[in-house]
Amino acid sequence: MDWAYLLGHLNYWLFIVMMMTGLYIVIARGNLVKKIVGLNIFQTAVFMFYISIGKVTGGTAPIFPTDMKIDPETVYTNPLPHVLILTAIVVGIATTSLGLALVVRIRESYDTIEEDDILDIETRIAREENREYGDAMGGRA
Amino acid sequence: MIETAINFALFTMLVVTAIAAARIRHLFAVVMLSGAFSLLSALLLVTLDAVDVAFTEAAVGAGISTVLMLGTLALTSRREKIPSHRPTIPLIVVLVTGAAIIYGTLDMPNFGSANSPAQTGVAAEYIERSPHEIGVPNIVTAILASYRGYDTLGETGVVFTAGVGVLMLISGLRTRRRREDEEDDDEAEEAG
């Protein structure tokens, strides 16, 4: 465990702290909008982690001079993670919007966006159905 | 040195924003914090040399997704209920997962090392060949539109599917609401 190793890995660990904060919001909070915010934080942290793997110390952004006279001495940062994460950001916003639309639809049906309340309503509906049809289905559950 | 200082200042702000988003119960503030998180992450991406990703993140993450979430808040509710169960189990799950991932990073190459496996693969080939083969100054554009064009085509398919899904979920919201209101009115009339 020397300083170079610690400094070289501290970045990764801080990204993981952010990821885990996002995951905590997703697991521990019952509000559906907040869950999606947590998912967004998790996702952004993963993006930054992935991009940081492609970083080269002393490198520059992977863009050539416009006259295309390329200095062979210039070090460019790895452009491949950038491309993959560009795609991932756009796919991420697509899934986020789909999730938010689901939240709106759930609110319409249940009149709440809290997980606990939705569970209560579901249990009540199941009980009522059991009382009504349970005997016909071969005994109540 | 100055770059490291900027990096860690940004990191601190990011972590504080994420923790604040976890603690605050007012959903409008949470959505705004999520926008701020995206903007800060765009700044961090600039220091990581990913300028294309940074402005996509600023436009899409801080802009569009904040607008979408505010729209959802307008259609749903503004406040979060106080959770009924204790956060012990989620905390344990998160700590164990985090420890497992950190264990996975232990044998990763140092941040910014030029001869790590990620740098020696196909990426060097792209940097070397794209000026002759594609001739676009921006290597990211060259890869996105040409070498990995099918990838981008697939992404368009995903976005299209998600758009259709959102439309199917949301469409008819107003007509369903009106019908429910009318039913309520009818019941009120019958009762009265």
Could you list some keywords that capture this structure?
heterodimer, A: 141 residues, mainly alpha, Helix Hairpins, 0% strand, elongated, B: 192 residues, 2 domains
Largest sheet of chain B: none
Uncertain residue ranges of chain A? none
Taken in chain order, the helices and strands of chain B follow as HHHHHHHHH
Tell me which protein chains meet in the greatest interface and how many residues each side has.
A-B, 88 and 94 residues
Number of distinct helices of chain A: 4
Q: Got a strand count of chain A?
A: 0
Q: What form of chain B results from the Cα inertia axes?
A: extended
Quaternary status? heterodimer
β-sheet strand percentage of chain A: under 5%
Radius of gyration of chain B: 24 Å
The number of distinct structural domains of chain A comes to 1
Q: What is the total domain count of chain B? A: 2
Determine the strand fraction of chain B and express it as a percent band.
under 5%
Mean pLDDT of chain B: 88
Helix coverage percent of residues of chain A?
A: over 70%
Order of helices and strands of chain A: HHHH
Distance between the termini of chain A: 60 Å
